[in-house]
């Protein structure tokens, strides 16, 4: 069955000698994996639009396994991102996150609009740490996995004294509930500043004007890395590059 939808390429991989498989986040069909025939040939007419972050109108043929790209009309290639190494790293990481959170062929135009807003924020901002934390939390909210920072995720009481983040529990724990956790559960001590920063970012519908420094910056990033890995069941491949940039203060 032929169908048409706007979409953005999240990733691509080679298939055989001439073809590529692309993962496309679409407005009408959710996450789609499709074959692009001849994309690796020097004269392949669809080669240019198999690159990550190409936004286009796609005509596809739906099949029981991989769909097939028939025709493409390019809308945007995000030169403001692809020409900047740090922005490519963050965009690639967040593309992995949305790919891991979204089921295939499940229509979710809200997530599509959100991811476009995330790319616009990466393109326009130099505070990529804040963009990444905001994007992670907005994507998690959209998928129903938003972590809790406004009270103990176990007993619901207000936070006071020592506070811990539990990826398995999906939020922060007070000292009393921390003592009741099972052996082997990851518990991360976090400062009140880190919890407040993540809570403020999580509550922001638009990219917030928040700049974190020092311990808060490091703790909040670690909390989100461990929680994302818990939700996805794996660490995104590009996360090590993000970590390196954040260690360097990008």
Kindly estimate the percentage of residues that lie in beta strands according to DSSP.
Answer: 15-25%
Report the CATH superfamily of the largest domain: Recombination protein O, C-terminal domain
CATH topology term of the largest domain: de novo design (two linked rop proteins)
Identify the overall geometry. elongated
Describe the 3D structure.
- By secondary structure, this protein is α+β, with helices and mostly antiparallel strands.
- The chain folds into two domains: 2-77, OB fold (Dihydrolipoamide Acetyltransferase, E2P), CATH 2.40.50; 80-148 and 162-247, Recombination protein O, C-terminal domain (de novo design (two linked rop proteins), Up-down Bundle).
- The chain contains eight helices and eight strands.
- It has helices at 79-82, 85-101, 109-124, 128-143, 175-178, 192-202, 214-232, 239-247; strands at residues 2-15, 19-26, 30-36, 55-61, 67-76, 163-166, 171-174, 188-190.
- The strands form two sheets. Strands 1-2-3-5-4 form a five-stranded mixed β-barrel. The protein has a three-stranded antiparallel β-sheet with strand order 7-6-8.
- A hairpin with a 3-residue loop joins β1 and β2 (19-26).
- α4 (128-143) runs parallel beside α7 (214-232) and α6 (192-202) crosses α7 (214-232).
């Amino acid at each position: 069955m032929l169908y048409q939808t706007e979409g953005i390429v999240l990733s691509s991989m080679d298939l055989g000698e001439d073809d590529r498989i692309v993962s496309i986040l679409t407005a009408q069909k959710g996450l789609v994996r499709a074959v692009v025939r001849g994309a690796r040939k020097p004269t392949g007419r669809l080669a240019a639009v198999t690159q990550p972050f190409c936004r286009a109108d796609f005509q596809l043929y739906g099949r029981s396994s991989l769909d097939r790209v028939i025709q493409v009309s390019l809308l945007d290639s995000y030169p403001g991102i692809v020409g900047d190494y740090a922005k490519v790293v963050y965009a690639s990481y967040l593309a992995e996150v949305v790919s891991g959170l979204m089921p295939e062929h499940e229509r979710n135009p809200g997530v599509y609009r959100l991811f476009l807003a995330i790319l616009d924020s990466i393109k326009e901002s130099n505070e990529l740490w804040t963009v990444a934390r905001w994007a992670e939390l907005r994507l998690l909210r959209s998928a129903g996995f938003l972590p809790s920072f406004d009270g103990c995720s176990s007993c619901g009481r207000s936070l006071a004294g020592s506070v811990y983040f539990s990826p398995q529990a999906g939020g922060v724990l007070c000292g009393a509930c921390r003592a009741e956790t099972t052996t082997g559960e990851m518990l991360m001590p976090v400062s009140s500043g880190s919890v407040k920063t993540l809570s403020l970012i999580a509550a922001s519908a638009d990219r917030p004007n928040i700049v974190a420094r020092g311990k808060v910056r490091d703790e909040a990033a670690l909390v989100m890395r461990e929680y994302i890995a818990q939700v996805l069941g794996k660490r995104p491949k590009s996360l090590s590059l993000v970590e390196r940039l954040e260690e360097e203060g990008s």
